[in-house]
Specification:
It is built from nine helices and eleven strands. It has 299 residues and is α/β, with parallel strands linked by helices. It is globular, with a radius of gyration of 19 Å.
Amino acid sequence: MNTYTTAPCSAIEISSLTKTFKTGQRAHKALDKVSLKIFSGQMIGLIGASGSGKSTILRHIAGLTAADCLTNSIIVLGRSVQTNGVVDRGIRATRARVGFIFQQFNLVGQMTVLSNVLAGSLGRIPSWRGTIGWFTQEERAQALEALARVGMEKFAMQRASTLSGGEQQRVAIARTLMQGAEIILADEPIASLDPVSSRNVMEILTLIHLEDRRTVVVSLHQVDYALRYCERIVALKHGEIVYDGSSKDVSVEMLHDIYGDKFIETCVEETPPASTRDIHMPAHAGQSCVLARAGAATY
């Protein structure tokens, strides 16, 4: 009997990605020939100091930003996102399969929580229905189910602007669930949240990754959260990848090299979140590394 091994399927393929931002006469290279392959079902933590290129990578994957006009390409779920600095004409179809969670939530404050979640279905329903806000009972039921998964169903008819930051971010995740996204990109999703809300958000993303086998790529300033929740770490420094591997192999020396004098290590004994304690946790999760962050711009 022959035994066949199925190779992991690529969800994201980035080749020689370069991006330069220009301000007046000054130019800053945010990404420098970055190549990266992410396989379906992985949970990746992007780490690095402010300005290292974490957010820029995510925006390029989603086709929100065009790269420099050099030899480069980005392929997502087998479809071209951009090549040689030109975003593909069919980007809308690809974006419908990619959910993007922003640091500032991007909810419509005057709309109800339920309406914000229903907006996640706009990419797959007729545009005229989205324009007049007509959703079927089945779609409303799906939105309520998405809210239930993030613990926000009781706030369904409340205005989004009345929620706390952590609650709004959970609604944003529910909107991504409603979208049915195969890939979730999260750009600093816990940067403005308190520790309890941060753990809740990261736990929800981890459970979606594990239960739905979704590919999750999350950029984080907080190294301790990245090591705790992400199986693979990609570290950037000055627009280049300086580490790509298991979270278990990230060392204190490596972090000092990446962050320089911005890094302060403290070891804190913590109990892992109950719902992930027996599911997914790096072997060294009892140690938390806390970053002292400077107020530099995030690119």
